[in-house]
Amino acid sequence: MADWPFAHLERVRFGDLDAMRHLNNVVFLRYFETARIAYLRDLIPGHDPAHPEAGGFGLIFAACEIAYRSPATFDEEVSIRCRAEQPGRSSFRVAFEMAVGERIIAEGHGVLVGYDYEQGRSRPLPDALRAAIQSG
Question: Is the pTM higher than 0.85?
């Protein structure tokens, strides 16, 4: 867990299952999205993902990659571990690992781009965010 500074828990609900009775691939992304938002609120205190334009700086979810490793089934508890990495001029990655106990069920990352809602374009990451990412 030392490599993963943040963890979010989800319990697999019956409605999260597909016809094969395991966690639907789309739900993996929803779990990551929920964990990513919670992690960013922890990483960037005061950041309101529901109203990013209020602070003049927002983040746009630009890309996601998920490698599915193992199915998850009804009522299992999924731990979604997150960390920020690879800060660039205006973007960074949020890596994640999903596990049921010690069994890895998925891993991957999302790319977030700093965005200026008034200008309607990308913008450099604030120094405070860059420092938070680099400090781990």
Answer: yes
